[in-house]
Design a protein that fits this description.
The chain is 47% helix and 9% strand. With 281 residues, the chain is of the alpha/beta class. The protein has 2 domains: 9-33 and 104-280, Rossmann fold (3-Layer(aba) Sandwich); 37-98, no CATH class. Helix 11 (232-245) links the parallel strand 4 (221-225) and strand 5 (256-259). Helix 4 (72-86) packs across helix 5 (88-98) and helix 10 (207-219) packs across helix 11. The two termini are 15 Å apart.
Length: 281
C-alpha cells in the first residue's frame, strides 16, 4: 500500500484560506493509462509512410528510434515535422483518438475525485487531454483566474465530493471555480500548443501568458501536481520571485509546493532553502 504523504501545516493553511492554486502536469494523468508523448508521436508517425524520396519520414523514424531513446528535443523535432507534413487537422485528430479513454480506470477516477474535493482557488494545467476539461487561455480566462473570489471554498468542494458531482470549473458560466488549460484544448485548434513553434509563440509572442503566470506565482501558493519542474520558463519565473522575495521572506516559508517522489531529506531541505519550493514527498 502506498504511504500517504504528510501534508505540511503551512500548505494546509493556504488551502484553508482559499489561496492555493493547483498546477497539474502530465504525471497526474498517468493513472489513466494514456500514452506518453513519445508513444503519441510514434503512433502519429505511422500515418506518414516510410518510402524512398520522403526525407521527413526517414528523419522522424530515426528520431523515434529507441537506440538510444529519443531526447525531449528530438521528440519536439519529430512533432514539428509530423505536424507540418500531416497538417494541423489530421495531427489533432490522431491525438484526440489516442487520448480518448472511456471508461477511466478506477484509480484515475479516484484521483480526479480527490483533486475536485480539495478547495483550490483555481486549477491550471498544461495538459490538453480531456481528463481535466477547462477554459482555453483567453483574456477572459486570465481575468477570472486572477480576479475571481471564492467566499466559501470548503462548502462547494465537500458537497461535490459527497454527491459525486462533476467539477465546477471548466464552464464559462461558473464564477466560483475555474480550470484553465494553459496549452489549450483539443477541440479548440487556435488555443493548442503542440509543437516547438507553437510553444515559442505562446511564451514569447503572447505577453499576457507570462504576466499571468508571474502574477499567479507571486500572489498565490501554487501546488505542482504531476509536474517534473523541467520547464525552463517556469523555473526562471520561480527563481525571479525567490530572489525578489528573499529579503522579506521568513525562513521555512515556501513560495510554492510540489508533490515529488523519491526525494531525499537533503534534497527537500535544499529545494525549500534555495528554490523557495516546499516538497510533499
Amino acid at each position: 500500500m502506498n504511504q500517504v504523504p504528510r501534508i505540511d501545516p503551512r500548505l494546509m493553511q493556504s488551502i484553508h484560506e482559499g489561496n492555493c492554486v493547483a498546477f497539474v502536469g502530465a504525471g497526474f494523468s498517468a493513472a489513466a493509462g494514456l500514452p506518453s508523448w513519445k508513444d503519441l508521436i510514434r503512433s502519429i508517425a505511422a500515418e506518414l509512410p516510410l518510402y524512398e524520396g520522403r526525407p521527413e519520414s526517414k528523419l522522424v523514424h530515426s528520431l523515434l528510434n529507441d537506440s538510444p531513446a529519443p531526447s525531449s528535443r528530438e521528440l519536439e523535432m519529430a512533432a514539428q515535422i509530423l505536424y507540418d507534413a500531416l497538417g494541423g487537422d489530421k495531427f489533432r485528430g490522431r491525438l484526440a483518438a489516442a487520448l480518448h479513454k472511456n471508461p477511466l480506470p478506477e484509480v484515475m477516477e479516484l484521483r480526479l475525485k480527490h483533486l475536485r474535493g480539495i478547495p483550490f482557488r483555481a486549477i491550471v494545467t498544461t495538459n490538453f487531454d480531456p481528463l481535466l476539461p477547462g477554459l482555453p487561455p483567453t483574456a477572459d480566462a486570465y481575468r477570472r483566474l486572477l480576479r475571481s473570489r471564492r467566499p466559501s471554498p470548503w462548502r462547494d468542494a465537500i458537497a461535490r465530493v459527497a454527491l459525486n458531482l462533476a467539477p465546477a470549473g471548466g464552464v464559462p458560466s461558473d464564477a466560483d471555480s475555474i480550470v484553465v488549460q494553459l496549452h489549450g484544448r483539443l477541440d479548440d485548434a487556435e488555443s493548442l500548443v503542440l509543437t516547438r513553434s507553437q510553444y515559442r509563440k505562446r511564451v514569447y509572442a503572447d505577453p499576457a501568458y507570462l504576466t499571468v503566470l508571474r502574477s499567479l506565482l507571486a500572489t498565490t501558493t501554487v501546488l505542482f501536481l504531476g509536474y517534473s519542474l523541467t520547464d525552463a520558463y517556469l523555473n526562471e519565473l520561480r527563481s525571479e520571485l525567490v530572489e525578489a522575495f528573499s529579503g522579506g521572506r521568513s525562513a521555512g516559508d515556501p513560495l510554492a509546493w510540489a508533490v515529488l517522489e523519491d526525494v531525499s531529506e537533503v534534497a527537500c531541505r535544499y529545494y525549500e532553502q534555495y528554490e523557495g519550493l516546499g516538497v510533499v514527498a
